[in-house]
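[step 3/7] inverse_fold.run input=structure_tokens len=573
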């Protein structure tokens, strides 16, 4: 018997953790798999690939059972591929699992008449028991955690929910040394050190399970060392709230600090208000690039936070976020469309998050997820309208009409493409301070209007060359603050060695100062490159970034010296 697990990722760079965990658990705990009576394999594709090529991939595997790992981002593709597989291979059992199908099984079976099996909740134990039954030729009807359709019938069997796995160490490590099965250098790797979340945020499916279980600490440290030894670039911990137990998370951060390889970055989602003085002491010793944080602010409106079960103090959040060392990249999140959050209060939330000057500010929109407490709230409130299709995003709330959603969508687009991308970051921060009284919302609102007028087509969402975006912002700066053009020059030179300089860029260049910078930075003596080559991968410019002072020289090195992040090295000379 051959069982195939199918993962369809949102992007090429992503990997699927679930199919690896299921496969690993089956190989460790199912005797039929260990004895070769049942083969369990997995395949990964992404939503940008052709369904026909995926169908061919499944067909050539010649499986008896195909299980799809279903999420918001791949629901459409998974359903389409599963349907095609059933047409082509009618005797194959088709199964679904994952958060997108776990909490609305009856609807999924109704929409997918070809579906035979559906795993609800955590899958390892249910999947293992299913494999044993398949090999033995028994009945599915008694397997807890498994919905099954009676053959040639519409009847659905559900023996009940399965208790979560308590000892997570029974699950084997999901990544193999020397044979990862994917392009390590260009892929994002997901990793879990715990399951569950103690908080009950209404918009999150984790609110359903407030218990928290942990992998043993020695095991986690061993696996962190594996990622360090193998030079994985980015490991994203999927723990819903990582910093729950100081005696645990501080040991992990200290281990990363003491064994950092200069390349691997570990990403953590944290509740910053729970960071202790000891935590800040440890964070102050973390090497630059070793860890990064994602912090969910979501809103600063007190009533909103109360209604979604996430009370917090914005002042306390700001104080703690501002204490995080600059060597640690910080990503903060907001959610538009939450209860009682209208455009006026969301502006305040946006400006609060903007003032933190985090490395990234993500503006997301409320998703009404089936099975979440928010879904119950939204159905009871006649003012909520949301899409029936993934990602089930809110279209309007009782206090945020669709017209206001569209305003925020435009701001989100410029925020991502101009600021979060790093393209125009320095200029935008300066403009908000000098012209908009530190209101990021007012800045982006003005930029949206300006951009629609600047481009003849008036379309904010068309793909643009970076040169055109720089020209657009330069035109904006000319009408506001000429000093901002100095920061725009800094951003322009930070993107890479210019092949030419645009009309708005008035140069302040000295060849002698450029040559002197090559000597001061040691590049001439460092590797024996000719001066011609050194000039070709460096740049010099005098910038007036501080109005009360004279122009200062800035030296830009476009080299592979910093291989990890491949960023320009900027030196004030």
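[step 3/7] decode complete -> sequence:
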């Amino acid at each position: 018997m051959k069982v195939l697990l199918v993962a369809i990722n949102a992007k090429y760079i992503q990997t699927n953790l679930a199919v690896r965990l299921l496969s690993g658990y089956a190989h460790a705990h199912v005797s039929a798999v260990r004895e070769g009576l049942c083969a369990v394999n997995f395949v990964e594709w992404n939503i940008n690939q052709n369904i026909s090529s995926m169908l061919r991939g499944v067909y050539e595997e010649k499986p008896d059972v195909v299980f799809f790992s279903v999420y918001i981002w791949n629901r459409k593709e998974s359903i389409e591929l599963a349907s095609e597989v059933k047409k082509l291979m009618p005797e194959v059992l088709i199964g679904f699992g994952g958060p997108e199908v776990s909490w609305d099984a009856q609807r999924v079976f109704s929409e997918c008449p070809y579906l035979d099996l559906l795993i609800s909740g955590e899958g390892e134990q249910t999947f293992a028991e299913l494999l044993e039954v398949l090999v033995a030729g028994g009945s599915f009807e008694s397997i807890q955690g498994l919905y099954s359709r009676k053959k040639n019938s519409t009847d659905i069997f559900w023996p009940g929910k399965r208790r979560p796995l308590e000892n997570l160490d029974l699950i084997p490590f999901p990544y193999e040394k020397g044979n990862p099965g994917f392009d390590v250098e260009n892929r994002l790797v997901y990793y879990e050190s715990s399951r569950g979340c103690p908080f009950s945020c209404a918009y999150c499916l984790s609110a359903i399970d407030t218990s928290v279980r942990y992998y043993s600490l020695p095991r986690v440290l061993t696996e962190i060392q594996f990622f360090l030894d193998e030079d994985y670039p980015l490991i994203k911990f999927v723990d819903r709230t990582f910093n729950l137990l100081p005696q645990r998370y501080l040991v992990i951060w200290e281990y990363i600090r003491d064994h950092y390889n200069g390349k691997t970055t570990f990403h953590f989602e944290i509740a910053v208000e729970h960071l202790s003085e000891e935590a800040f002491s440890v964070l102050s010793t973390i090497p630059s690039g070793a860890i990064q944080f994602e912090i969910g602010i979501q809103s600063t409106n007190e009533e909103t936070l109360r209604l979604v079960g996430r009370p917090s103090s914005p002042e306390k959040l700001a104080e703690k976020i501002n204490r995080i060392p600059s060597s640690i990249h910080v990503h903060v999140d907001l959610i538009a469309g939450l209860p009682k959050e209208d455009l006026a209060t969301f502006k305040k939330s946006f400006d609060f998050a903007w003032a933190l000057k985090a490395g990234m500010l993500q503006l997301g929109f409320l998703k009404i997820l089936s099975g979440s407490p928010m879904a119950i709230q939204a159905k009871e409130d006649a003012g909520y309208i949301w899409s029936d299709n993934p990602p089930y995003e809110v279209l309007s709330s009782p206090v945020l009409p669709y017209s206001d959603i569209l305003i925020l969508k435009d701001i989100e687009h410029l925020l991502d493409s101009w600021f979060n991308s790093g393209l125009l970051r320095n200029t935008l921060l300066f403009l908000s301070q000098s012209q908009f009284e530190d209101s990021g919302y007012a800045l982006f609102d003005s930029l949206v209007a300006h951009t629609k007028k600047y481009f003849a087509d008036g379309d904010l969402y068309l793909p643009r060359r970076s040169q055109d975006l720089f020209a657009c912002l330069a035109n904006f700066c000319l009408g506001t603050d000429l000093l901002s053009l100095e920061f725009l020059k800094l951003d322009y030179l930070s993107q890479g060695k210019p092949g030419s300089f645009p009309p708005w860029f008035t140069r302040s260049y000295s060849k002698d100062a450029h040559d002197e910078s090559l000597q001061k930075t040691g590049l001439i003596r460092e590797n024996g490159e000719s001066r011609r080559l050194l000039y070709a991968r460096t740049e010099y410019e005098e910038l007036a970034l501080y109005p009360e002072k004279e122009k200062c020289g800035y030296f830009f090195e476009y080299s592979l010296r910093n291989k990890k992040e491949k960023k320009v090295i900027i030196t004030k000379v």
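[step 4/7] annotate
Residues 402-420 form the longest helix (19 residues).
The chain is about 40% helix and 15% strand.
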